[in-house]
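Hello support,

Our group uses your service weekly, and this is the first time we've seen a run hang past the timeout. The protein is Precorrin-6Y methyltransferase. I'm not sure whether the cause is the sequence or the server load. Input pasted verbatim:
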Amino acid sequence: MNSTTPGASVTVVGIGADGWPGLGDPGRATLRHAQVVLGGGRQLDLLPGEVTAQRVPWPTPLLPALPDLLAAHAGRRICVLASGDPMWFGIGSHLARLVGPHRVRVVSHPSSISLACARLGWPVERVTVRSAVGRDLDRIRRDLAPGRLLLVLGPDATTPATLARTLTDAGYGASELTVLAALGTDREHRVDGSAHDWKAEPGDPLHVVAVRVAATPGTRVLSTVPGLPDDAFDHDGALTKREARALALSRLAPTVDDLLWDVGAGCGSVAVEWLRTDPSTSAVAVEARAERAERISGNARALGVPHLRVVRGQAPDALADLPAPDAVFVGGGLTAPGVFDAVWTALRPGGRLVAHAVTLEGERVLVDQSVQRGGDLTRLSVERAAPLGGFTGWKPARPLVQWAVTKP
Ligand SMILES: C[S@@+](CC[C@H](N)C(=O)[O-])C[C@H]1O[C@@H](n2cnc3c(N)ncnc32)[C@H](O)[C@@H]1O
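Update from on-call engineer: The timeout came from a worker crash unrelated to the input. Re-ran successfully.
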């Protein structure tokens, strides 16, 4: 079944942990009128006997089975039960994609996020929501900044303790945690504490963790604006320095859902900063040397982007099976034959290519490439104030040539 399937239509009813008593009239009427109700076992068990429809529990895994399941009940009045707001980390958007939004009617219910904000007195629009279900909890490290209000949806009862450890490890042990469990039920309860001395036992699996983020004194706060200090990365000197990195990222211009290839990734600083700009982006770091490839993974985890894919290998061969990028940074391997042909061919139309050279040989390649493909050549010279005898003088770094071009 897909969006062209005729006749398929479905009503999704959001239901809270308080079940039938918490449902409004439209939700109840839909359920009473339904011929088949699809939903999780826990949700189906909340329905009273007056709902006489056939009850079909979701199979596992659900999403691949969804088209056949809907097809099997085509022509009947189908109701899908969803937990809380069906459009908030829920089944509603999957159904809309599958049968078309005009064939999905949604009967909304407050989400666990709205309930949590109501209990905490937090404005929903100020809150950053993250799901750690099926995702690495280390991604939370990117969001850590004093004053941030975080709500984390976790996979199980161990999430609060793992989150408390992660916060403490990142220098945010002073953060206040509140576990809000079984929201909207008569079992509802909360556990409060700070991350660095979190003692609570694993509790109710049905919960949301609220975090008022606070830094432990001495913690260096890292922005998501590119140009992190060089020592924010573990590196062996093969690093695109702060000013050059910031300029490279401005030319690479990450936007929603964009994929970057960082070719000759060194310690991964360019790819890491790319990913920190927006959680929807993705990146592949290609690095020839094994110990550096390992360092890239460490930097990615420490800086909250563990989803950075690291490929150890030599460009251009290592690029062969990668998905087409929206942007490419070439920081190493410029003089290897075929690298620019490979990245130019793979780059999507409108994609950005940025390359840095610090050697004359690399510079010659960039000049040739710019003659062939256009774009801008820029020479960057950075000087830093440093001790000179008893005084202070300018210490120049190696000049660098940057080539930046957009594929037509
Ligand atoms: C100057 S460093 C890049 C620095 C990097 N942008 C950063 O900030 O960490 C160049 C890197 O390219 C790698 N390299 C050189 N030729 C390569 C090739 N053909 N394929 C993959 N990596 C290569 C080197 O091992 C080195 O780590």
